[in-house]
Amino acid sequence: MSGAGGEGQTAPSATPAGSPEARANAGAADRSVAQIRADIGLQQRELSSSMESLRRRVSELSDWRRQVREHRTELIAGAAIAGFVIGGVVAILRKR
Predict the structure, then answer these.
(1) d(CA 16, CA 10)
(2) To 5 degrees, how large is the angle CA 82–CA 84–CA 87?
(3) What is the tens place of the pLDDT at every residue in 27-52?
């Protein structure tokens, strides 16, 4: 181990070995044009897949009819609680 300050030492990389950052930092001079194009194509496919997955998830979450079907019990319980709270507030205000 060397002394304090750590001069001459490089910090270990915090990025995973297969991540785009690690691949980009691997040195463009060590990669052929074909490898770079293949990497770009892979990243485009991954992005396209991620975007499609995100679109499906947003569509699912914004479908309020489906949400009502899937969470009927919770909605009924919430409506009952809200009714009791509103009724209690009205009853208190009428007593004044």
Answers:
(1) 16
(2) 105
(3) 556 889 999 999 999 999 999 999 99
